[in-house]
Amino acid sequence: MIIYIEKQAKDYKQTKNILEKFKSSQVIYIDNYKNIFDKSYKNIDSKKSLIVAKLNSSAITEAPVWYGHTKSAYFFKTSLNCVFDCSYCFLKWAFKNDNMVVFVNYDDIKKEIENKINELNLPFSKGVPKGGGIQKYEWITRFYSSDYSDILWMDNLSNFCTEFIPFFEKYENIKMEIRTKSANISSLVNLWFVPKNTEIAFSLNPQILIDKYEKWTSNLDSRIEAINELRKLGFKVWVRFLPLLPVQNYEEIYSEFIAYLKLKIDFCNIESSFASGLLYTKKDYNKILSKYPDLDVLHMLDLANDGFYRESKKVRNTFYKMFKDLDNNCMLCLEN
Description:
The protein has helices at residues 13-21, 34-37, 91-94, 106-120, 151-158, 160-168, 186-189, 207-213, 220-233, 250-264, 282-291, 313-326; strands at residues 2-6, 26-30, 50-53, 60-62, 73-76, 79-80, 85-86, 100-103, 128-129, 137-138, 141-144, 174-180, 198-203, 214-215, 236-244, 272-277, 279-281, 302-303, 308-310, 331-332. By secondary structure, it is α/β, with parallel strands linked by helices. It has one domain (2-332): pyruvate-formate lyase- activating enzyme. It starts with a strand and ends with a strand.
């Protein structure tokens, strides 16, 4: 494997950790990670490399209102690109090649998150009812860590969990979500404590759809096993049913899937569940359609009144009824 290292990133602790793990790799020092990451390759598979860089731009992006369980939420990035190859994923057209980037200036990223938290300064305001009361409300702000790569899979490279899970423990009313399609939970199992402010969210789909659309991800049973193991250890575990795919015979496929989950997971022990179909902005939809015109699920979407390309309201309601029957507290993405 080739490892490209920005000269400004070579002295960081994480860089040294990565080089220690991949002693036999070819190392090339570069001035700017974009000189590699922003290149288009005709034969991408032969060019996959790891890029170690310093993030000089902002790490934080505000999430859409009611994207998740709370009105206030943010994405933050410590890496770019994913080893998995999900055919519907926005990363497939967001970047020019499949090289993976790890940003190693964690202290700078933590400082930016800390500044954002201090800027919010809303310990009690409109938000989630606290303790069932009607007068006092607890404002919960969430930081999503896995929208630019599968953080849990990458943890062997990045040491993300040991760096950021303890960091979020010092805050009140702040949660971090690690969303994953990986069963690689060794770094969580080996933590020296059970975090109260980090939620591990496993994205689940029927195995037949994982095989077709989620190449190289962990299989369904491995994800379920990871869920149950973390729950036994006391971790806060969420389940994400996304993206729900309106394929032929989807009602039958997802009905069998839900019946299987009822046998394998005790949803009374799951912190929360969340359901969402495919969701693209008009710009992103046109990008992925031009790059993958034969991807069948793209042709099952319509431009909705909210400006997103997504399944029809009828299909979404069918999906949501199914998952509400599985978990009555299941939240719905951008349906408020």
